[in-house]
Amino acid sequence: MSTFRKVLISLLLIVFVQGCILTGRASQSEPTSMPQATDALLDTPVPFSSATPLSPTKVAPTATVILPTPLPSVTITAVDGNIYIRRGPGLPYNPIGVLAKGTSAQVIAQDVLSKWVQINIPNSDNNTGWVSIQTMYSKIDGDLSQLPDFTFTDWPAPAYIKNCTEHDMYIMPGDIYLSSLYTNAKFLNEIQADPGTYVAYDLFYPDEPEAESFDIREGMTAYITINGSGEGHKCP
To answer: What is the rounded CA–CA span in Å between residue 214 and residue 222?
Structure first.
């Protein structure tokens, strides 16, 4: 083999070896895959972008739960007698129960227009009613000013008592005087009254015997039809 041909073969081998080395280095410098990031809240993979940096994870603030403030301890006790519990704050409302002597009840509100308080009726299924604090038969323990005010807007329907006998009548409780049916004075034999239980006494007789007892409720008229001697009458 000539000297020229030997030199040419040597040069070709050198060029081939250098090309293989450069190719191996280039393949080692490239990444084989693109990494991913994870959203911390949804735990869902999202595409990674080198152009837009990821913002820090934001955790929703924990809600503050405000528990209702317990009502202050205020009670009412019936002393020296029983007290009507009524459906509203006033005598014109129907009685719905009785706070017996010596019994206490929790006070939960007070009416802003009158001296009546709303109570949880003892031994009932979470029923409420109203009791007067104007009577000497009630005693309050606790601070009423710390209770919520309540305006009762369900107004009562008026109730009446009418005397249909020929005798004048005296009605208790309430010291009510009712003229006979035959009086010449207009409407003197009829009067508006608060719901409750009443007794009519016949004033025609010296001993004023009991003529009739009756209950009245909101929106009704109670008619006295029996006199002190037991005679019945009809209202015109």
So the answer is: 7
